[in-house]
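Summary for the steering committee. The consortium agreed at its last meeting that each partner would contribute one worked example illustrating the joint modelling workflow. Our contribution is presented below. We chose a case with several input lines so that the handling of multiple components could be demonstrated. No manual editing was applied between input and output; the record is shown as generated.
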Amino acid sequence: MPARHSTQAARSGLTACLLFAADSAFAHSAARGAGDFYAGALHALTALEHVLPFLALGILAGQQGRKAESILLVFCLSLAAGASAALWAPPLPYIGLLNIVSAILFGGLVAASWSLPMAVYYGLALVFGLSHGFANGAGMLEQTKPYLYIPGVALAGLAVTAYGLMVTDYLLRRKADWIHIAVRVAGSWIAAIGILVLATSGAAILRA
Amino acid sequence: MRITRSTISPDLFSRSMFALACLFWPALALAHVGQGDISGGFLAGVAHPVFGLDHVVAMVAVGIWGAQLGKPAIWVLPVTFPLVMAFGGVLGGLGVPIPGIEIGIAVSAIVLGGMIAFATRPPLWVAAIVVGIFAIFHGHAHGAELPESANAISYAVGFVAATGSLHALGILIGVANRWNAGAKALRAGGGVIAACGIYFLTGHLIAG
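What follows is the complete predicted structure of the assembly.
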């Protein structure tokens, strides 16, 4: 029996090894052609200024229930449109501030937990999808393939917002009444972070 | 069963594979440093509220008092506090001077400790104003340090999360209020908090 046990351990060790090794092998793998897809996805996923508002929008949609899934589709398409616009539009220096404002707005709406007409949420998803998309699209280099990079950005946005929606929807179905407070607290934290960052960036711009 | 060479080697194999996996680990971690140094700013943000004993005492006191006040204060507080504190942080970040910040923070511990010790139950709006004023003082002290940090957004994430966790700690301690002996212990704890505040205050007055 111990022999079988250690074989299992060896197998899991090997699996873990392969899992980590994949990272260093990545550059040579069959995924070479898809590299720009990951460049787009990682550009959005490795920056908190995008991930936090994405999460807040997902939580906001989750507070509206299952019917709100279409908000995420609007946001995803709007991200793609914004990133495409960055291909020909001149760079907008203050687009980052707009993205921080989206964190404050989305987080604040989660904290307030009002029930607004759905049109408001569609409008917010549309406008800030464009701004986040544009900021990510501006990260494309000369040799980047836009037809891979832009779907990467859009699908990363869809994944994060969908995660927020699913978790929130799941939690709010539980019967404990403190859960909806915990969700609002999460929104309040995101809005507070946004306010602090906006002030810092604003102060930096004023000083410059 | 006798341990033979063949039973040992798979275990050894898995161990060496694990070591190999560890070898790849730093490569994984390094890949993300480029876009936002999350650990640098984040840890500084967490450390700022946690390593200042005057902040810790006051934040935990806010949570305990909220728990003592019961509904609705217990959930109004954690939702609104981060936002008000962020506003104070903005004032600090923009360099708007508030005189006597350190004294205000020490006084906040005395007042909140006193409220807990005497189990004072003012109307919600009075409690909100008291806590709100202190939230601005605390936020200002943190915000004044915000612009120096390397990464504003991860600093803000750490700072808001640490403060919120201190409230949560206070609210958890406040659960003891349900039992008679627990309620008495909480009031005694309030006395200790107020005493800490007096200690901080005399420190500042002697130094000033």
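Residues 194 and 200 of chain A are 10 Å apart (CA to CA). DSSP finds eight helices and no strands in chain A.
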